[in-house]
Structure formats: C-alpha cells, structure tokens
From TrEMBL:
<feature type="domain" description="FAD-binding">
    <location>
        <begin position="4"/>
        <end position="365"/>
    </location>
</feature>
<keyword id="KW-0503">Monooxygenase</keyword>
<dbReference type="Pfam" id="PF01494">
    <property type="entry name" value="FAD_binding_3"/>
</dbReference>
<keyword id="KW-0274">FAD</keyword>
<dbReference type="InterPro" id="IPR002938">
    <property type="entry name" value="FAD-bd"/>
</dbReference>
<dbReference type="InterPro" id="IPR050641">
    <property type="entry name" value="RIFMO-like"/>
</dbReference>
<keyword id="KW-0560">Oxidoreductase</keyword>
<dbReference type="Pfam" id="PF21274">
    <property type="entry name" value="Rng_hyd_C"/>
</dbReference>
<dbReference type="GO" id="GO:0016709">
    <property type="term" value="F:oxidoreductase activity, acting on paired donors, with incorporation or reduction of molecular oxygen, NAD(P)H as one donor, and incorporation of one atom of oxygen"/>
</dbReference>
<dbReference type="InterPro" id="IPR036188">
    <property type="entry name" value="FAD/NAD-bd_sf"/>
</dbReference>
<dbReference type="GO" id="GO:0071949">
    <property type="term" value="F:FAD binding"/>
</dbReference>
<protein>
    <submittedName>
        <fullName>Tetracenomycin A2 monooxygenase-dioxygenase</fullName>
        <ecNumber>1.14.13.200</ecNumber>
    </submittedName>
</protein>
<keyword id="KW-0285">Flavoprotein</keyword>
Amino acid sequence: MTERTQVLITGAGPVGLSTALFLARRGIRPLVVERRAALSSIPRATGLHARTMELFRTAGLEDPIRDAGLKIVGPDQETELVRAGRATPLVMLGARSLAELRESFVLESHDVPYADFSPSWPIWCGQDHYEPLIHDAAVAAGAEVRFGTALTGLSQDADGVTATLDQGETVRADYLVGADGVKSTVRDLVGIGQRSHGSAGHFVSIIFRAKIELPDDAPRFTLIYLMNPAAQGLLLYIEPGRWMFGVNYYPERGQSPADFTRERCVEYARIAAGDPHLDVDVESYTPWDATHMVADGYRAGRVFLAGDACHAHPPAGGFGVNAGVQDAHNLAWKLAAVLRGEAGPALLDTYQAERHPIGAATADQAWMLFRSRGRLAEEDRDRYRDFVVVTMGYRYDSAAVEGAPPDAEVLPRALSFTGEPGSRVPHGWVVRDGARVSTIDLFTDDLTLVAAPGGGAWADSAARVAAELGVPLRAYRLGVDLIDPDAGWQAAAGLDHGGALLVRPDGIVAWRATGPGAEHDVPLRRLLAR
C-alpha cells in the first residue's frame, strides 16, 4: 500500500524540522522521515543568528529557544544582560589552555547593536536544546515525524515523487525535500553534482563535564581556539560544568578517530583545561570534517535540497544551521502557496534562483574565515563580508522580486536595510491596534502591502486585485492602520508621500512604489499574477 502526503521531508535535524514547521503553519501536513532513532543529544550548531531568530519568532519559538539558551552565554556572563535584550557578544580567544587565559589574545570579536535593525538578537543554544522545541512545534502544527526510517530510493514523474523507505513502505508525495545532510542520499539519487574546496580539517568533538576554575582576572570569551601542540582545536563553553572540545587530528600523520579512546579524550580535556589532574566525565566523542561543498543545483524536478545537503561549510561564523533554516523558510512558503493553489509552479523556480547564490557565497565566506584563523590574507580582504551581512544583509534577484538593483551584490559590503526590492524589509517600531509591534512581525503569513500617507489608492487596488486573483493579501495604511512615530519607518523604507511597499511572507521586499502612480491596478495585477 502506498501512503500519500503533500510533502515528504528526509532528515529531522534543525533544517528538516524547520521546513516541516514552516509548512505546517501554512496548512500543509508534511511527513518527515529520519534514519536516526532520536533527536540529537550533542550540543552542536550552537549559534543561532538574529535572522534565524526572526524566522523562529514568526512561528512562536523565539521565546522558548531564548529560554533554553539563556545559560549558554559564556563563563561569568551575566544572563540579566541577555534577558534585557542585549545579544551575547562573540569573543574568540587564542590560548594554550584555560589556565593560561591571561596570556590569550583576541582572534575575533563581534558586539553588534542588533536593536538598531532587528527585534531579535542571536543566542547561544545547543542543538540538543532547541531541536526538540522545533520538533514539538512542528508536530503540534500537524507535521508527522518518524524516526528509525530511511529513504532508500525515489522516482518522479510530472505529477509527483514516489519514495521507497527502508521498511518496505512506499510514499507518494507532491514534492520531496532532502534535508539529509552533507552526505545526502537524496542529492545522490537525483544526480545533482557539487563543487568543493575539500576539507579544511578533521576533528573529533569531545563533550565533557568538569569543574574548571578560571582565573579571577581571565578575559571573558565565547570560544577558545586552543593553540597547543599537544591538543589543537576549538573549545566551547556550553553551560556550567559542561564543555565541548573539537580536537584536530591529522590522517596524513597516521591519525584517525580510532585514536580517540575515552582515556585519550580525558587527556585532551585536561590539556585544554591546563590541569593534568582534572576530574573529567566524558559524555561523548564524535568525528567530523570541516568540509566545503556547494551543490550544483537546489532542485531536480519535484525534489529540492536544503541545508547541508546543498551547502556545507566549516563552522567559522556559525553560518551552517542559520543558512539551512533560511533555506527552509524560503522554500516552505513557496511550496505552501503552490500546494494551496495561490501560486503557479513557476514560483518554485525562485528557490534555486534566490538561495543558490546565497549558499555558495556563505560557504565561500566560511571557508575563507576558517582557513584564515582570524587573520585574513591580504588577497581575501576585499572578498570578506562581516558575518551579520552574510546572515541578514543578503540580496535576492529572481522572478519573485521586481525592481532589484541590477548591479547589487549578493552580499553587500555593508549592512543596510533601505526598502530596496530583494532585501529584508527594514525593522521599525509601529503601533497597530494600540500595541507596539515590530514591522518584522507584520510580514509573516501572506503578501502584505503597506501604503504611505497619500497612498491609500495602492491599498484599495491591492485588496481588489488580490480578491480577483484569489491571492491572500493584507494591506495597511500608514497613519491609519499603522502609526509610524515621526515617520521613521517610512523614511527607512524609502517611501515618499503616496508610495507603497509590497512585502513577501518571508519579509523580503518584492516591489516598491516610492510615490503615487497614475495607475494602480495594472502594476499590482502584473505583480500578483506573477
């Protein structure tokens, strides 16, 4: 017997579960299959950036994730600062051991004023903490998740995808999303190629518990890059008494993950702490490679790739899970619109057009940063982009955007939100129904048009054309439905008197009329029909 579902998702990591959550919130009931027996118990992918938190905000998960991550803010960091809305600053130190922090030096430091451009801010939260939250929210919204179930084969035709599972089951789906990691079975089955710079290093992540006394005058940090000949790698503070040490090993020297016995892991933890007698409890040790990879395509017919299945990169910048969740959100609202009959299949072509350039640029940025160890080579300086630009300031140019600057870089040189088509809509605080809300919260489910004062004709036209075409759309009038104090947001969005902004469900500006137009129905009918 063949089971039927609208969307089959392979992989129940953060990306697959996020895809399921974003689909389920739009009325689609996806099926997720995962070959693992359970969710991750390892606190990897610990940094969730502001844009990712904005997306989880739309799904009601921002506060639960923040609550789960409050304690993961670095040694002696005051959680009250995080509770008050201040992002945890990223500080990466270079040191020989924790006992020698007085002799450490700063490799990388970021303390970004997120409140200037976002209602959200980054958080340090282990995957083992936030993954269950995404899972539970997705299931509550209507998704089904099956563990211990792997995809073994697939075929597709003009009407859908037929997938074979390892239990002998067959599933028929309208679309399939491969969120099954860097060694993606889905990518291999549909024959999508890849380009790669190779591996930037081989590691074993050791999770251990130990009571480590830091020097009273030790500098604060988020990460430590251990520059110790006896144990080199990245040391991450997870929570009080719990650490993760990603130790380098070198196959060219005859080393392998098999060398990492529990006893050897205890020794590495003691070297990292600078205490040869430290009492250490090793929870786990897992090998992994810092691999660079960009898939040649994100789509093959009715099959899509997301997350590490289509772009993998070293952990520098913490881009991996964040880029994957952004893939998931971009794809989910488009799949839902097509499945609900609100858009034609051509909308799905814009997933490749928008996310592939971002995935490639992000992977290349991570590779460059990881190889530089915080010290960029002169030839890389012109290509380098600050991590907040990579995660929030990227630009789209596709058929789902009209009026994007033709010469705009995928990753601009500086962060700016000016209401240009193809960019994330500017954040500002406005008043709706007597409540103060961020403009980011206005653009979460449907297409939305915001008309500047004097632009009421745009709002009337948008409502009329949307009803004709059967496209869900909401319209706001500044000064009527939304109170914009001092017209600050209107100016930030580049709207003159009589202008309007059309924003997609992912908060990306689809089109902008800076002022009043002679005709209103014609451009809006063209836009909404497309």
